[in-house]
Amino acid sequence: MNLLRSIRPMSVITLMIVTGFTGLQAQPADSLTIDLPTALEIALSENPKVKVADLEITKKEYAKKSAYGALLPQFDLIGQYQRAIKRQTVYFDEGFGMGGGDVDPSQYTPEELQILQVLNKVMMPDPESSGEGIQMGRFNVWSAGMNVSLPLVMPSLWKNIQMSEVDIRLAIEQARASRIDLVNQVKKAFYSLLLAQDSYSVFRKTYETDSLNLENIRYRFNQGVVAEYDVITADVRLKSLIPSILQSENMMKIAELQLKMLMGMESDLPLKVVGSLENYHASMFDVIIPADTSLVNNSDIRQFELQSEQAQNAYEMQKLQFAPSLVTSFNWTYTSQNNDFRFRDYRWDPYSMLGVTLQIPIFNGGQRYHGMKQAEIQLFQMDEQRKELERGLKLSIRNNYDLIHKNIEQVVATESSVAQARKGHQITLKRYETGMGTIVDVNAAALAVINAELQYRNAIYDYLAAKADLEKVLGYDIQPVETNE
């Protein structure tokens, strides 16, 4: 009896602890109640990865506009100032190359001969002193004007526009892939939270049932019907459930935090998840498992095709490096030269030029040729990589199909085992009450019920997770989730 008195307070304390666990599960009034469609809707609108993927599309669109802008005229205003530290020295040959002093008087009029004589004195200095040269220019040189250029024939720019269009399509597909991946993660996190809640519910109900059984056994012990060993065994079994309850509660917290993170929510906002894994039992036999394995909608394959198109464009870009280019340009400049900083007295002289530049690549050390060969090898590499990717995806589809069928069989089998385990537990209790069974048999039957309940829910979770993975590989977009609530 002394041992019984020591057991009774411990049972009360344990009951208070578990009651505290139950209180922790009570959701406050401001908690967010969600089901799976709501969780998906919130995640697709608030998840940072989806927002980043959408912004990537916008960024690529601006890159495309930038590529088109390269075909338009370019206007640049220029301004320049130069200060001469030492002015340039220029040397003149005799007569500036105009024939020296040998002039035929018969070919010129007297006025022209007079002018030539003056020019000869200026343009033909003394040979002994002409070697010193003449310093030309002024110390300050100011220039301001405008440059205009327009590419007329530039094949590489045209190909760059095509590549930017492929970049946009790739960004759109990557955004779609991020959504498909997010849907897969949210579904599995939601199912994990349901599994944790169901596991907690199983252990909690078992604890409540075993608590009543312990009180019944303790009453029968006081009546002298059963031995003290039965009380001790029942109490030990009851306490052994506490670690499982704590573990399942911790699993719920982790699964809830993971779901909140995927939904882009604050971690301090409580969630109240609607439903349980059993709600999916009836609908899982009505759902048609996708049979299309063509990988037409698979995002990895689509991205790889776009990347192959990018590689093809890069190869063609390398080939276009051999093509000539034609660019027209126009320049209008005002220049002023002076030795002081009296801006009012400056004299500005205009200068303008219109030209066309034709550039024909001839030889650059084989850089263009070797670059083209690198791009060609990359195309061969991507062909082999695509084959390997398709093999891996087809194997993943096959494995998911096998997992789905195996999990369906497990659900059917464990559903039957749950019913049998419950029936066996009831029979064992009756036998124990009539004195035909032992407490060990009762504990074994109760443990069988717990295992059957957990296996049943794990089988449903495995089926739902495998189906979500299959939909991800097949590239299915968001579909309404059906449950039997």
Structure description:
With 485 residues, the chain is α+β, with helices and mostly antiparallel strands. It folds into three domains: 2-70 and 157-318 and 367-474, Outer membrane efflux proteins (OEP), CATH 1.20.1600; 74-87 and 138-153 and 324-360, Outer membrane efflux proteins (OEP), CATH 2.20.200; 89-136, no CATH class. Helices cover 62% and strands 13% of the residues. Helix 2 (36-46) packs antiparallel against helix 5 (155-222), helix 5 packs antiparallel against helix 8 and helix 8 runs antiparallel to helix 9 (367-433). The longest helix is centred in the middle third of the chain and has 68 residues, at 155-222. The chain is elongated and about 160 Å long. It starts with a helix and ends in an 11-residue tail after the last helix.
Sum up the overall morphology in one term: elongated
Task: Look up the CATH topology of the largest domain.
Answer: Outer membrane efflux proteins (OEP)
Rounded to an integer in angstroms, the radius of gyration calculated over CA atoms is 44 Å
Level of helix content?
A: 55-70%
How many domain regions? 3
Strand content: 5-15%
Q: Write down the secondary-structure element order.
A: HEHHEEHEEHHEHHEEHH
| Count of individual beta strands | 8
Distance between the termini: 50 Å
Task: Specify the CATH architecture of the largest domain.
Answer: Up-down Bundle
Mean pLDDT: 82
Give the CATH class of the largest domain.
Mainly Alpha
How many helices? The count is 10
Unreliable residue stretches = 1-29, 96-100, 480-485
Arrangement of strands in the largest sheet? 2-5-7-8
